[in-house]
Sequence to fold (111 residues):
Amino acid sequence: MNVAFDLFIRYACGLAGITGVFLRKRFIDEAGILPLEVVRMPYRWNNQRDVDEAVVVVMNTVDQGQEIRGWLMRALQQAIYDSDPGLAEHFFKELERHRPGALKYFKKPVF
Fold:
């Protein structure tokens, strides 16, 4: 990248107060690494409404013909493991009731 352009961008971002965010984003993109916020996504269900919202997300994803994978799968798995077992049970019951085909994403792989 041109040094003059880089200095201009730093100056412009400094005026806008986003220097750190911009430079960190640029570094992350150039280095090809994921920021800590993306790698660690703590997510847990606190009540049945949270679970119902997650079920709706799964239903919408399946309805659009997409697979449940990537960040969505990691967030759901984290919620299942970290939340109250009763809420995890409610998630599976609601999923079985509304989209039983989506349960295949949450089965343990057989080796």
Q: What stands out?
A: Confidence is low (pLDDT under 50) at residues 15-28, 35-41. The two ends are 48 Å apart (CA to CA).
